[in-house]
Amino acid sequence: MASLGGQQENEEDEFISSLPKERGWSFSHVYLFEQFWCPSSLIRERNIFQKHFHAKQSDVLVASFPKSGTTWLKALTFAIVNHKKFSSTENHPLLTSNPHQLVPPLYTFRGNIHDQILQLSNMAEPRVFGTHIPFPSLPKSVIELNCRIIYICRNPFDTFVSAWAFFNKIKVESLSTLTKEEAFEMFCNGVIEFGPWWSHMLGYWKESVARPNTVLFLKYEDLKEDVDFHVKKVADFLGCSFTQEEESDGVVESIAKLCSFEGMKDLEVNKSGTINFEIKRFENKLFFRKAEIGDWVNHFSPSMVEKLSKIIEEKLSGSGLSFKMHS
Ligand SMILES: Nc1ncnc2c1ncn2[C@@H]1O[C@H](COP(=O)(O)OS(=O)(=O)O)[C@@H](OP(=O)(O)O)[C@H]1O
């Protein structure tokens, strides 16, 4: 972890310990920082980032609440921005690397901060980063330079099931396994890494309405319905539209196929590869579970359905944001 130096570190520790604190889903604790629940390590990383990271105008951000389709959108975005560089069928980096390796998270400082900044500044442009950070807490330079942001969200029912399955598998050893009931209670209270999920979605939703050329808001369910349409939409948004010839050659369809759940989950790198997450090293295969719309029906009791539906109604009403719950 990058170091701030003695006194500053102490002040930061004091600041973090003054914040409201809850048990996390995968981290021992999460703190209410800038109105979202966040592990202490991320608060530190984010503070360093605010100070030292300078966005470039060509940077692209893939933003999401966890378990909403991040892996899929990272793969698609990487393939789209590099479609002139790599063929989707031969030797494509996505055939041998997990999307999270090709599209690194904005905040994961390990080791020397200056090396990290140098590494990032040497990345091929356009640099594509992933982030689960809510809109208001993004690095200032990202906002000031109007870097393009693609946000993906998913219906909260499926997001909950996916998160419950995933976080229990990657959690720190010392944490007890969250029962479905415990996790659901926390989810309904917004207490989950990067939550509350409703303010996360609404933050990006409002920006996408106010600045549609800067923030593109996508839904997992819509991508499932017509991925080719969305591949073209993302390319147009990023200013790298496909030519007529590329479209006739089937480039759009081959990107969609390369990034499909079926295509990705059976790749060797995603079956047996591992990724170094802050908490521990875990298997890439954990990013690929069922990828269905409506799996929640196998997990929700009628009272859970009623409670979550009410929260969605209450939190999102009037925003214009709604979800498809079944395929
Ligand atoms: N290529 C592709 N296409 C469609 N769906 C996919 C794909 N890759 C992963 N998935 C499904 O997405 C869910 C994981 O969400 P995230 O990728 O956002 O997870 S993470 O936040 O990056 O950890 C998780 O959903 P569930 O299966 O419902 O748990 C994955 O199975």
From TrEMBL:
Claim: Cell division is one of the keywords in the record: no
InterPro entries the UniProt entry points to: P-loop_NTPase, Sulfotransferase_dom
Family: Belongs to the sulfotransferase 1 family.
This protein's record includes keyword Hydrolase: no
Record EC number: 2.8.2.-
Upper lineage: Eukaryota, Viridiplantae, Streptophyta, Embryophyta, Tracheophyta
Protein known as: Sulfotransferase
Gene3D superfamilies associated with the record: P-loop containing nucleotide triphosphate hydrolases (3.40.50.300)
Keywords recorded for this protein, A-Z: Transferase
Alphabetized Pfam families for the sequence: Sulfotransfer_1 (PF00685)
Molecular function terms, GO-annotated: sulfotransferase activity
SUPFAM superfamilies the record matches: P-loop containing nucleoside triphosphate hydrolases
Record domain Sulfotransferase: where: 58-320
